[in-house]
């Protein structure tokens, strides 16, 4: 974290955090509702939201989608070890993952594996297809281990949820 990012983090008060919690629940909450719940004027709330957006603390407004309702019944966690750890290999692997729409999240990690990848699939046959047609065609994979998610116990985007 840069010095500037640390300063931005320190400038958030209880009102800013309250506004963020409201927006995390529903980013379409009207400004008047936010103001009423937080106990500030609409102008003050708008200025705070603008400041958080300008600083990059609020990155976007989006929707949450129930993946099962759009046909993606299963989530698979894949741990991957690469043959090489050169900058080029890591870069190319990351680019390849970006081209696979089913990859929801890819994290470069420490430990026994190099990557932790969260993938949405329709079923086990769909996952087998994705492995054959996409994942295993990425050069440089030494080893992978897959685990199907049985149930999600907790999922939040921030500790403020």
From TrEMBL:
Residue ranges of every copy of the HTH asnC-type domain listed in the record: 12-73
Keywords of this entry: DNA-binding, Transcription, Transcription regulation
InterPro entries hit by this protein: AsnC-type_HTH_dom, Dimeric_a/b-barrel, Tscrpt_reg_AsnC-like, Tscrpt_reg_AsnC/Lrp_C, Tscrpt_reg_HTH_AsnC-type_CS, WH-like_DNA-bd_sf, WH_DNA-bd_sf
Domain of life from the UniProt record: Bacteria
Matches recorded under SMART domains: HTH_ASNC
Pfam families attached to this UniProt entry: AsnC_trans_reg, HTH_24
SUPFAM superfamilies xref list: Dimeric alpha+beta barrel, Winged helix' DNA-binding domain
Protein name: Lrp/AsnC family transcriptional regulator
Native source species: Massilia agrisoli
